[in-house]
Write a structure and sequence with these properties.
The chain is built from 17 helices and 4 strands. The strands form 2 sheets. It has a two-stranded antiparallel ribbon. A two-stranded antiparallel sheet has the order 3-4.
């Protein structure tokens, strides 16, 4: 594999991992809309910082964007606290306004440089390795790789150091306050981290993929586990898989790498959503079908139990007429009888069904409940 291609993969994997870590807490806090808001609203901060430095690689861009991201959160929460609008409405009012300011500034004053609207929205990973970091005249690799690597380390360090505080503030903010912690401070620290991570990925992958990488891997991991620590690890793994598979899908199709990664993020989520044990759509559908047959089987044994030992028991237990007594379709009644026979809740004696001890116990238990 060529060095340039390897660098693209490393940038994509590092970006996906850095975005996935804080994204876990956004998903758990049900703040996924906030990631979309921040990824767009930081644009004016980037533009204003560029006007000051005239350098797209300046660290000031990350700081300014981080400050704009926090400002977005403040505006949203101020609107929400008025109780006149809900959170989604507050987000919908705030980030389009800030994003529009950034777009206007770009179109008016920065249309002839790389900081254009297409790069802002879509990004292009293929160009990321072209922006090189040189130290004392030596080329040591793409700037994006070092920026995202540094942010990945920062995110990981923040989560490791404040893991207990983040966990407590996420799941029980009232208890956190009681124990002397400050959920507000933790919240704004997390939002600052999200803002900095977002702008770090902004130039390479664009705002659309940033949202996909912040939300997609954590949501996919959330379907797979209830453990926060495992969810963090799975999010990083899934994000990395999305990045690598998206890269290798983009080349044969000759499409945008960022777009391809976003598509793979969706496809992997849908796959997990379908097949994950216990929670996937297939598992849920199978559980519903099983519950349907178990309920019908219970109705059958209750019917037999209620007439057991009575003069009409023979007529009520006759297989050919069960569908009439229970008001079922004949085909459905036949399938329920086979299901109950297989589970040994009933036995067959010529044309009649007879309750087994097991079936009688089930009927008694159902009637008591």
């Amino acid at each position: 594999m060529q060095i340039g291609n390897l660098e693209i993969i490393l940038i994509a994997v590092t970006t996906a991992s850095a975005c996935a870590l804080p994204g876990v807490f956004l998903v758990l806090r049900r703040m996924t809309l906030m990631s979309d808001a921040i990824s767009h609203a930081i644009l004016p901060g980037i533009v204003l910082a560029f006007f000051l430095t005239h350098n797209l690689s300046s660290p000031l861009l990350i700081l300014a964007a981080g400050a704009t991201g926090v400002l977005t959160v403040v505006f949203v929460e101020l609107l929400q606290k008025t109780k006149l609008v809900k959170e989604d409405a507050a987000i919908g009012l705030t980030f389009p306004a800030l994003f529009s300011i950034g777009v206007i500034l770009i179109s008016r004053h920065a249309s002839n440089i790389h900081l254009d609207i297409d790069a802002v929205l879509l990004g292009e990973l293929a160009y990321a390795p072209l922006n090189r970091l040189k130290v004392f005249g030596s080329d040591i690799g793409p700037i994006s790789l070092y920026v995202m690597g540094g942010l990945l380390i920062l995110n990981l360090a923040f989560i490791l150091i404040f893991y207990k505080e983040l966990k407590l503030a996420t799941f029980d903010a009232s208890l956190a306050v009681t124990l002397g912690l400050s959920p507000v401070l933790i919240h704004y620290g997390l939002m600052t981290l999200v803002s900095m991570t977002t702008v770090g990925a902004f130039d390479a992958v664009g705002s659309i993929l940033v949202v996909a990488l912040i939300v997609g891997p954590p949501v996919t991991a959330y379907l797979m586990t209830d453990s926060l620590s495992r969810m963090l690890i799975l999010s990083v793994i899934i994000g990395s898989v999305n990045a690598v598979t998206g890269y290798f899908l983009a080349f044969p199709l000759d499409v945008s790498i960022a777009g391809s990664i976003a598509v793979m993020t969706l496809l992997i989520f849908v796959t997990v959503f379908m097949i994950v044990p216990n929670r996937g759509l297939i598992a849920i559908a199978r559980r519903h079908i099983r519950q349907k047959w178990e309920f019908a089987q219970t109705m059958l044994v209750i019917h037999l139990f209620n007439h057991e030992g009575l003069p009409e028991a023979e007529a009520e237990s006759e297989i050919a007429h069960l569908h009439e007594h229970l008001q079922w379709e004949p085909t459905f009644a036949s399938r329920v009888v086979r299901y109950a026979l297989n589970n040994r809740y009933v036995s067959q004696n010529a044309a009649q069904l007879i309750l087994t001890d097991r079936g009688r116990t089930i009927a008694q238990r159902a009637l008591v409940q």
